[in-house]
Structure formats: structure tokens, C-alpha cells
Fold these 3 entries.
Entry 1:
Amino acid sequence: MTSALPTAEPPAASGLLLPYHTQADWLPPDLADALLDHAIANEARFQPGSIMQSGRLTVDETIRQVSVLEHLGPFQERVTEAALAAKPLLETLFGIPAFTASRVEIELAAHGDGAHFQQHIDTFVVVNKRPNPRILTLVLYLHRRPRRFAGGALRLHALGGAAIRDIAPDHNLLAAFPSFAPHSVQRLTCPGGAFADRRFAVNIWIHR
Ligand SMILES: O=C(O)CCC(=O)C(=O)O
Ligand SMILES: [Fe+2]
């Protein structure tokens, strides 16, 4: 006697959007403004943002065009604390079993005219031959008001389908998602091109 094999359901054309979370006014307003001022004051220290390709960090502006600063200076500790405070809620919302954070990795990114980041995930298998276990990605957006750039949405992409969700990078908005979720930064325009007018983002990765 033969029994029928279960037939796999074809994925819906829209695919599966992974859970994500947004929170307006994430930091106390004074802190968000001070962080933006810090970013603007440190223009000279920003470097071209890199990507991981074949296990190596490289700069490729066809994939990622952005300037980054590796440390938040006097704000590192307070932002780390805010990220760790958000962790239990994010674990619950995303269905990720509670884990002990071994590291909170933070960088400050400045997206100017033409900046973008193609669809990618934030998890690497190895970095410098060590596991790089990013679990949660948190992005805090900062910009001068009124906003002087257009575009630059964070786009979340569905698994196995064409669905997308665009998130406008509003000042002091937190966007969070599992680090393995595909996402991209839509190309932006920043006419005039002043550094202070850029789309700033604090990228935070909580490692297990
Ligand atoms: O700026 C954003 O909205 C996301 C940036 C990003 O995906 C990254 O730096 O890995
Ligand atoms: Fe990313």
C-alpha cells in the first residue's frame, strides 16, 4: 500500500514578511538631538561604509553607498543600555528565544545624496574566522527638521515572494527586525548635499 506524500503548499506570491517593530520617539528627545549634533560635528571622522563579500570587508558603492563612524563616543553607553532595554520585547515580538547578549555592536551611518544599500541580510557566517552571531538589528533614525532629503526608506523584503514594507526614516524612530530578515535602503536624494542634511542612522546589532 502506498500513502500519498504530503504536497508542499506553493508559497503565496506575496511571500512571508518577517516580524518587525517600529517605535516613534525612542530616545528622550534631548538625547536624540544631542546624538544628531554629535554626528554632524564628527563629519571628518566618517569613512566609506563596507560590506562583507566572500568573508572580507570591502567597499562597493554599487551595493552600499554610505559613510560610517564606528563609535558613538560619549553616547555609546546610553544607546547600548536603550538597546538592551528593548531586547526582551523584541525577542517576544519576533519569537526569538531569550538569549544572553555577548556584545552590542554600534555604528553611526550618514546617507547623503544618492546613498542606498541593496537588499541584504545582517548576518555573516564568519568575520575574521570567528562566528559573528548578530541576532537583532535595531536602527535609530536621526535628521534635521524639516527633513532635507527625500526617499531613503528602510524596505523590508518578504521571504519567497514580492511583498515589501517601507518604513520612513523619521527622526528618533526605532526600526527593529531579526538580523536575518532581508532589507534594503532605498536610494535617497539630498539636494544641496550639506553633511548636516543627511539621513543619519544609528545601526545597532545585538549579538548572542
Ligand atoms: O539605514 C537603514 O535603514 C538600514 C541600514 C542597514 O541595513 C545596514 O547598515 O545594515
Ligand atoms: Fe542591514
Entry 2:
Amino acid sequence: MFNSVAWQSLAYHAQCQLWRRAFPIAVCSKYFEPLKSNKFIRRHIMLGPQQSFSKTFFFRQLFDQESSTYTYLLADINSKEAVLIDPVLEQAIRDANLIKELGFSLKYAINTHMHADHITGSGVLKKMIPGCKSIISKSSGANADIKLEPHDVIEFGSFKLDARPTPGHTNGCVTYVAEDQGIAFTGDTLLIRGCGRTDFQEGDAATLYESVHNQIFSLPENFRLFPAHDYKGHMSTTVWEEKRYNPRLTKPKNEFIDLMNNLNLPYPKKIDVSVPANKVCGIQD
Ligand SMILES: N[C@@H](CCC(=O)N[C@@H](CSS)C(=O)NCC(=O)O)C(=O)O
């Protein structure tokens, strides 16, 4: 099957053929041959056609200003089954109201990892919405209704998320990939033009580097990536963009490790309350 990148490439070549018929070969070679290998054309082909969502796939990006955290509401419009990725405690009422308003039924409150900067909303959402189950990876060491093994699949309606293990920021970090929709939720593993820090919890720069290169940069280049945080006003990126412009992850591994080990960032303000609370997905007795 042709995807949209292939179609656009085909359309470009067909256009070249038409011009070749209309004009002498010399003119065509002069203007089109250099273009064909030109970065502009390749950039246009890769940047332009990001895969569009299925008609029944619902996607909403939500933001918590205090922690600069993105939460994602995904749903199947037909079955009404929904999931929330990385809900934030302080936004649980906002999220529950939106889900109710849209007539969705929240099946899972999913965590990409055990966050250190804010308390997850998954515990409170479970109390607010009967039937909702919390999810985190088994390797996070946290408690939840469902503890994922690598590559477990989460289903909601007719859609799926593949849990790709991407340790490095923490041991239990997962990138959730919706293959059919051409999107991935990278948590704190890959941030837009950055990445999660590796200086606490079980952080390890070499592991994070391998995770990104093997599990995220191996996705098709037109896949859109949605992180758990952004501190500069960006909302999403693509595999293509990050493979070229990520200032950390485009470096050789040894330089990356050196850079990550010398970031000297202050610890997140809420780390001492967030980590213990997130060990039980936000619910404390
Ligand atoms: N100032 C914030 C914490 C900012 C921070 O450390 N962010 C983390 C992700 S949340 S643990 C991170 O990995 N940042 C990477 C970077 O390069 O900044 C607070 O006090 O909460």
C-alpha cells in the first residue's frame, strides 16, 4: 500500500515527466535534476504529509501550566471508550468534566512513568470515574491496577497503544505508540529538541540514548511525537525533525553522556512529595 509520503513523491515524479514532454531535455535537466536531490524537496516530502487520524479517532492535547505537563485524551468516537495519558492531579476535575461532556467512558488512566515533578491524576480519576483502571509499567516499581510488560498492548474501542520500553530518564519509562495513527507519546524520554534529565531516580544517560535511537528514531519519520512536558511553548514534533534538530540526541553517544552528566539542573520543586505519591499512582491512605 502507498502511504501519503509515497503518493507525494509519485506526484512529484509525474510532474517532472510532464515538464520533460513540454520542454527540451536540457531545460528539464537544468531545473529539475538539481531539485530532485535537493534538500528542499526531501524536506517538503517528509515535513508535509504527516499521517492524518482515522475519522473515528479522537485526540485532545491538554496542558497543566504549573508543571508544564501535557495530558492526552484519546478515544474511539464510535465505542466512546477513552484513555488519558499522563493526567495531573490538579487537573483531574477538568479532565473528568471534559470526558463527561463528550460522552466518553474512561477505560484507563495511563502513566508514561513515575513522575518526579507532579502527582499523577490517575488515582483520583479512578475514584471519580467508576470502572477506570490505572496503568503504569511493571519496571517503574509503582503500584497500579495494570502493570505493563514491554510491548503490552492497550486497547480502547478499535484503537491500540503499544507500550515500547524506553528507560533512561527512569527505569519504567514507556513510549506509547499508536501505529495506525502515526503518533507516539514519549513521556519524558524525548522532549521537543531535548530529552528527560538522567540525574535522579534511576536515570542513566547511555540507556536513554539507546532507548531513543532504538525505539523512537526507528519509527517512520513522518510519525508525530507528543511529549509529557514542554517548557518553551512547543506542542508536538516528528521523528524526522528530532533526528535532525535535537541538540542532544544528534550528538555521538559519548558526547551525549558527557552533556547529560553536566546539566546541573535544580531538582524539581515537588520531587519529595511527587515520587512517594506516584509510587501508588497518586492515592495515599
Ligand atoms: N522546574 C521544574 C522541573 C523541570 C525538570 O527538571 N524537568 C524534567 C522533567 S520533569 S522530572 C526534565 O527532564 N527536564 C529536562 C531538561 O532538560 O530540562 C520543576 O521544578 O518541577
Entry 3:
Amino acid sequence: MSPAGPREDFPDRVTLMAALAGRVAGLLAEGIAARGRATLAVPGGTTPGPFLELLSETELDWSRVSVMLTDERFVPESSERSNTALLRRTLLKYRAAAATLIPLTAEGESPEAVLPGLAEAVRAALPLDVCVLGMGADMHTASIFPGADKLAEALAPDAPELLPMRAPGAPEPRITLTAPVLSSARHIFVLLTGVEKAEALARALLPGPTEEAPVRAVLSHGATVVYAP
Ligand SMILES: O=C1O[C@H](COP(=O)(O)O)[C@@H](O)[C@H](O)[C@H]1O
């Protein structure tokens, strides 16, 4: 793997989430000042809730911010596994209620059926000003999983912005931003907490193919890892 970007360790999760929320808000404000609008991508899953809650309270011209998920599970929004529901619950309220959500899911039979209707709005909001990613213990990031059916396509330099994805490690089909979208963000953060993730990161930083550890696709593009135990 080419040299990894910086890593910032925090003494605890409260400090980490507050620092990241402040940093992301500052970068979005810079993007708005420079270009009139800014786009933010955030992860789903179990880690980012407190960061998203704090971000929702920050002072920013949220009416100029577009927000999308890095990936979504193809489940109804009523499911507790819906990343969109997480986003509505934690980020899209208070001051951040004025932001525009670019959806990564819609009602339909399959990810393939809804994807064309989603791609245009995603494309129009790119490039990402700030991309915050999570990582699973299997070293997947967004929904780019080791062993996934469209892994090679998602990692290819000419990948489309969005792909449907099915993987042995994912309980449901997914829709994910692809590696070129994630790695071309102006600022990339990988948000990690806990010993299991620290161990996975150590494995991901070893030399090896990106297919085995998809998070390498962003680590090799200067992503800043922010971590607390
Ligand atoms: O399934 C997913 O997993 C990753 C990691 O989630 P976590 O629960 O271990 O924090 C997440 O980044 C991704 O957005 C999500 O869809």
C-alpha cells in the first residue's frame, strides 16, 4: 500500500466525536465560502451517532450543504438497520435540518431497480467536500466488502458513482458510493472506535491488495484516521 495519511488518537470517544464535528463543520464552511455550496458524505452503522448529533447543532449555513450517506442497506426506512433513518434521527435536525438530503435508497424491488433514479442527484452533488467513513472489522468501508460481488468494479478507477453490492459479510443488499468517489473527496476521515477496529486498521495498513482490505482505497489517498479506544 502507498503511504497512509495521518492518524489522530483521542483519549476518549466524547473528545473524538466533538473534535471531528468541529473539524467537519469548519471544512464545510470553507467549502461554502469558496464555492457557494458544500457536500458531505457520512457513514451509517453503530459508530457515528454521537458525531452526527453534535454536528447537527453546529452553526453553519446548512441550507448550502448537501448530505449523503457513504452507503445504504437496502431495507425499508422503518428498519433499525436503515442508515437513512439513522441520518434523519441524528443529523438532519436542529440547525442541520436545513441541509439537503441526497438519498441513497428508494422504494423498489431491488437496488438495481432504484439505482438509476438516485445516481443523477449524487453525480450533481460531487465532488465531496468532506467524506467521513466507517470501517468494519473485516476492513470494508462504505459497502465495499471483501468478497463482494461487485468488488473489482467498485474499486476500478472508472467505476460509476454508485453500485449495488452483495457480500457474504452483509446481511442485506447494499448501495454504495464507489472508491473513486470516496477517494476524490477534498477531505477524507475514517472514524474508528474500539480495540477491534484498531486491530483491523493495523491489518489494513500492512502491504496487500485493496480487494482484501477495501479501506486501503482511501487510506492510500491521504485519509485521516481519527480514533478513540
Ligand atoms: O454496514 C456498515 O458498516 C460500516 C461500519 O459500521 P460500524 O457499525 O462498525 O460502525 C459503516 O461504516 C457503513 O456505513 C455501514 O453501512
